[in-house]
Amino acid sequence: MAQDIGGALALLEAVVKERLAANDAGASYVASLAAKGRGKIAQKLGEEATETIIAALTEDDAALTGEAADLIFHLTVLLAERGIAWGDVAAELARRHGTSGHAEKASRP
Ligand SMILES: N=c1c2ncn([C@@H]3O[C@H](COP(=O)(O)OP(=O)(O)OP(=O)(O)O)[C@@H](O)[C@H]3O)c2ncn1[C@@H]1O[C@H](COP(=O)(O)O)[C@@H](O)[C@H]1O
């Protein structure tokens, strides 16, 4: 059943931040990934993006949904490790709301 995306992201972000603060790599995948460094988190995000693309082009809806969740999870870890909140991303999306991508591109210097 579909869930509220804002609530799901807020809950995931809170757990990820807690895992980063606890820094227990043995007990937590998030902590173990962070211990490998920002480059490894970014690499995982890239892998999940590629897997999402492949699923979109060749796999069924359930597979694409799973890959999308993996992608968002790893983006959440990367943002949290950088100290950026989903609320910051939401604010940027809200700032852009109502401005056509065509109009924005045409206004660039
Ligand atoms: N949503 C997720 C989530 N999605 C995917 N993953 C893990 O992400 C990892 C990467 O997936 P892969 O298939 O690429 O794994 P892999 O082939 O072993 O990859 P490598 O790391 O070896 O390169 C797997 O271990 C998945 O289980 C997740 N791990 C955790 N969460 C959330 O994060 C919370 C905290 O998790 P812990 O830090 O483990 O407590 C959990 O309660 C969940 O809510």
Short structural description:
It catalyses: 1-(5-phospho-beta-D-ribosyl)-ATP + H2O = 1-(5-phospho-beta-D-ribosyl)-5'-AMP + diphosphate + H(+). The protein has 109 residues and is mainly alpha-helical.
Kindly describe this structure.
- The chain has a single domain (13-106), classed as Helix Hairpins.
- It is globular.
- The chain is 78% helix and 0% strand.
- It has 109 residues and is mainly alpha-helical.
- Helix 3 runs antiparallel to helix 4.
- It has helices at 5-22, 29-35, 38-58, 61-82, 86-96, 101-106.
- It starts with a helix and ends with a helix.
- Phosphoribosyl ATP (PRT) binds at residues 12, 15, 19, 28-31, 70, 73.
- Its EC number is 3.6.1.31.
- Belongs to the PRA-PH family.
- One of its GO terms (biological process) is L-histidine biosynthetic process.
The CATH class label is: Mainly Alpha
Ligand inventory: phosphoribosyl ATP
Beginning-to-end CA distance, first to last residue: 45 Å
Total count of strands: 0
Radius of gyration: 16 Å
Main β-sheet, in a few words?
A: none
Offer a few descriptive terms.
about 110 residues, mainly alpha, Helix Hairpins, binds phosphoribosyl ATP
Write the layout of secondary structure elements.
Blueprint: H1 5-22, H2 29-35, H3 38-58, H4 61-82, H5 86-96, H6 101-106
The site of phosphoribosyl ATP has 9 residues, from helix 1, helix 2 and helix 4.
